[in-house]
């Protein structure tokens, strides 16, 4: 069990609690409910893992001083934006060597939001597919 806090004074909600747990059911199956990437994992062998899960991406950013004016929204100049995105999908992780892993993942992004809370403007997207391939190296 893991407990944590996200603290960011710039955001609309400066303190957010988080909790998670990881449970190894057997040598093959693991329930990994740790944010921001909860998932169910199946180990095919020592080098190949398949998984189903999701991801939460979030952050708070300051936009440029001329961000909104060219877009007809001068209230967005120098604004603070809260970004939130959810992914659901499946993937695989292949351990090429003990230090190098290749991952491939694909799924759906059902929600994305850009919340400029000070001028009270919110942009949301529609469902969209996503995919990624990554190489991780440990030194």
State the main characteristics.
single chain, 139 residues, mainly beta, 9-stranded antiparallel β-sheet, elongated
Show unreliable segments: none
- Main beta-sheet strand count, sense and barrel state: 9 strands, antiparallel
Number of strands: 9
Structural class: mainly beta
Q: What series of H and E elements makes up the topology?
A: EEEEEEEEE
CA-to-CA gap between the ends? 28 Å
What value does the Rg take, in angstroms?
19 Å
Number of helices: 0
Helix content: under 10%
Global morphology: elongated
Number of domains: 1
Query: Per DSSP, what share of the residues sits in E-state strands of 2 or more residues?
Result: over 45%
Give the overall average pLDDT. 92
Describe the structure.
The chain is mainly β. The chain has one domain (35-137). It contains no helices and nine strands. It has strands spanning 2-7, 15-24, 29-33, 39-43, 48-62, 80-95, 100-116, 121-124, 128-137. Strands 1, 2, 3, 4, 5, 6, 7, 8 and 9 form a nine-stranded antiparallel sheet that branches.
